[in-house]
Amino acid sequence: MLAHIPIIFFINISLVNTDSPDKFIVGFNIFLILHMATHIIYIKHKKNEFKDFISWTLIIGSGLSGAASLAFNIV
Questions:
Q1: Comparing C-alpha atoms, which of 55, 56, 7, 49 is closest to residue 31?
Q2: 74 DSSP assignment
Q3: What local confidence, expressed as pLDDT, does residue 33 receive?
Q4: What local confidence, expressed as pLDDT, does residue 7 receive?
Q5: Distance of CA 60 to the CA centre of its chain
Q6: Could you report the per-residue pLDDT of 17-55, keeping only the tens digit for each?
Q7: Which of 18, 29, 54, 72 could make an SS bond with 66 (beta carbons 3.0 to 4.6 A apart)?
Q8: Is 32 exposed, middle or buried (0-12, 13-18, 19+ CB in 10 A)?
Q9: How far apart are CA 75 and CA 26, in angstroms?
Q10: What DSSP assignment string belongs to 6-66?
């Protein structure tokens, strides 16, 4: 769970210090999709702490939103 904390820092720094937020958004959408895939791959891992409904709603929701954004060019 603590591995997710630097993501917020990265998002803030990247959005503030970029000339083209569109490039960041595309990269972040790709990250969201890969993040969702990683959670799905490791769903049965014995140290997986993300098993409740709220966690999976956020994980799947963000991954699907990233995919939709890329698919429909919502930037």
A1: 7
A2: -
A3: 96
A4: 79
A5: 9
A6: 778 778 888 888 999 999 999 888 888 888 877 777 888
A7: 29
A8: buried
A9: 8
A10: HHHHHHHHHHHT-S-HHHHHHHHHHHHHHHHHHHHHTTT-TT----SHHHHHHHHHHHHHH
Please tell me what DSSP assigns to residue 68: H
- Pick from 24, 26, 23: nearest CA to 10: 24
pLDDT at 75 over 80: no
Predicted local confidence at residue 32, as pLDDT: 92
Any idea which residue has 């049965």 for tokens?
A: 44
Specify the DSSP class assigned to residue 2: G
